[in-house]
Amino acid sequence: MKTNTIKRAFAALAVSAVALSATAINASAETAVGYTSTGKAAGFTGASLELTQKTITLDEAKNAQEITLTVKGDGTQYDSTGIHVQFDEGLELVKSEYMEEEVLAVPKQNYGASEVKEDGNGLFLTFANTSPKTAKATGSAIWSFQLKVKNPKAGDKYPIQITYTDGDLFDLKGSDTTDALRDYAFTHVTQGYIAIEGTPVTTTTTTTATTTTTSTSTSTSTSTSTTTTTTARQSSATTTKATTTTKKVTTTAKKTDSPKTGVPGAGIAVAGLAVAIGTAFVLRKKED
User: Is 185:69 a contact under the CB 8 Å cutoff?
Assistant: First the structure.
């Protein structure tokens, strides 16, 4: 009797541990910018999308940094994708070398058909395959590209984000779970960034204005100090400095046989990929 009770207790603990683990994973997942869940992924386990998160030194920021788009899932299959990636305006795209050519992004696997297009301050990455690709639990890279910080400053952070445009894909064609697969992928996103080590630069400017009044029997002096502080913004290569100007003030009171006195104050258009493969596999057409 005691043995059965102990077994039931351990079984309950095991279920609780699994539930807590799943909760922790879901809590860390984000939804792609601009995407609204269809609810199809409820109770479904698919593959997540991840972008590189990289912290570098100010010296390393002189060079372009490789960013990877990765699919992570325990055996999840997919055969076509259409994914928008947008990056901060403080970052610029640097072309990569691939098969003796300069390309916007490098395919990390062999695809039946693929296309990359620049879309504003970002990329639209697409591919279609006749046979499914399989996501690994440790992650399967599908694309990489190079980004460089335009005007690096210590402490700045530059977001790199998966965004959703109507018609974007993460599908397994012909599968009755393809809608759930897509919904899961775009609601389980790890967004990327490039961050630079160090403390943001803080600039302090102090301006003092002094007003002096002289009369027959009294002398009054008033001093006002104004401090303006400007801190370097994150995710931006520009720091704006505010300047405060104080007008000169002079007050003079007349007095018989007294001289006049005055003291001045200190002053990812959607690419619309349609790929026809010899086996009649077609990537869903998107509006541009």
Answer: no
